[in-house]
Amino acid sequence: MTAPGPAALEGLDGVVRLVLDDDGLDLLELALAGALPADAWRPWPGEAVLTDAENTPLARIDGGTATPLRPFAAPAGAAADPSIRRSAAAAGANGLSDTAVLVADDLPTHDDVLAVADAAAGAAPVTLVLLGSRRSGTGRPDAAALVRAWQAVLPRIAGDVRLLLVPWPAAPAVAPVLGRVLAAYGLAGARRADAARTARTASLLGGLDGALADAAARVAGEVYPDEAVREALRVRDAHARRGAVVFFTGLSGSGKSTIAKALAADLAATSSHRVTLLDGDEVRQHLSKGLGFDAESRATNIARIAWVGALVAGHGGLVLAAPIAPFDAGRKAARAMADAQGAAFILVHVSTPLGVCEARDRKGMYAKARAGEIAEFTGISSPYEAPEDAELVIDAATIPVADAVARVRAVLQAVLAG
């Protein structure tokens, strides 16, 4: 892509800035490569500056048109190979329209290799389109794993097979536009490489869920060619243990911290997961030290808790967070962060009535709030928006701590098992 001139960076003050996650970066790459109109998936407003996680301006969206602000960098490693990761214009210039087209978004099984070999036995060359995501940790191979695995098995296949890596968001909402993307690359009549997988292959793949011991590794060899087994084991081992964020919300004094601490102790003694407790008061002393209690500071505090929790859970840990989290928007943002990391999110509303919370108040905070000594105190001078999307509601005034722990644990186990 040609680097934009300095004029492209002018006039950005006051334009909404949106930080893209991995799915958004894949979508933007498609748009800037000429493979998809910028508004096809509609994740952005009519005008915005799109940035990466480091807040680097990448493109400006205006009226459905994407204008690059910086050269768009592909991921490092195998997925960045310029002979494979080509724009729609570059791919079309290479005459791909005269090839047979197969599409793959998974590691190559023995059945998949046979399907590609059958296609390559025909008169036309084969274009194997790899739909690769930047996002990892979802239980699906990312772009680099796809490229490595398919490159490793290509020597098994006689005939002319050309790999084409197309950036592809892991979010399922983009799936319906695949035909438009392939058309932009000049490709038609695409078939899935995995369409002919046998029932036995499907059964063996199901057996690879969970941690991969030696027995599972042998099963992997029955599913995948030797050259692809390493990638198969790496991808599935990385996702073998799904993490979760259990997010307790409720008024000060509702008992959420007590339940969270008891649950943390119970899980630490009985679960194979690593358990991290992010208690509201402790977070305020460290992660959010210096923040006030106005609406903006509270939102920042919740965002910090959510971000740390999502990262830990994304790596297979269990995170128990117990802030007040009075606003629906902050809780929904926390759920979205966990979802983006492939982690489960369980919202627990500790619904203890205000009168009970005040009676329990050992620090005298409610009395100070009612006397006007503490501004914007949740439940007194600042609202608490009771959640309508909680997976579990617990009134700690009537439910003992041990029973509350058992209820949360039951929900957690069901979510992780599902």
Give me the secondary-structure topology:
Blueprint: E1 17-19, H1 22-32, E2 47-51, E3 57-62, E4 65-68, H2 88-93, E5 100-104, H3 110-120, E6 126-132, H4 143-153, E7 161-167, H5 178-184, E8 191-192, H6 199-206, H7 214-223, H8 226-238, E9 244-249, H9 256-270, E10 275-279, H10 280-285, H11 295-314, E11 318-322, H12 328-340, E12 344-350, H13 354-360, H14 365-370, E13 392-394, H15 401-417
Parallel strand pairs: 1-2, 5-6, 5-8, 6-7, 9-11, 9-12, 10-11, 12-13
Antiparallel strand pairs: 2-3, 3-4
Helix pairs in contact: 4-8, 7-8, 9-15, 11-12
Word description of this protein:
- 39% of the residues lie in helices and 16% in strands.
- With 418 residues, it is α/β, with parallel strands linked by helices.
- It folds into three domains: 6-68, no CATH class; 77-238, Rossmann fold; 244-417, P-loop containing nucleotide triphosphate hydrolases (Rossmann fold, 3-Layer(aba) Sandwich).
- The chain is globular, with a radius of gyration of 25 Å.
Q: In short, what is this structure?
A:
The chain has helices spanning 22-32, 88-93, 110-120, 143-153, 178-184, 199-206, 214-223, 226-238, 256-270, 280-285, 295-314, 328-340, 354-360, 365-370, 401-417, and strands at residues 17-19, 47-51, 57-62, 65-68, 100-104, 126-132, 161-167, 191-192, 244-249, 275-279, 318-322, 344-350, 392-394. It is of the alpha/beta class and 418 residues long. It has a 5-stranded parallel sheet with strand order 10-11-9-12-13, with helices on both faces.
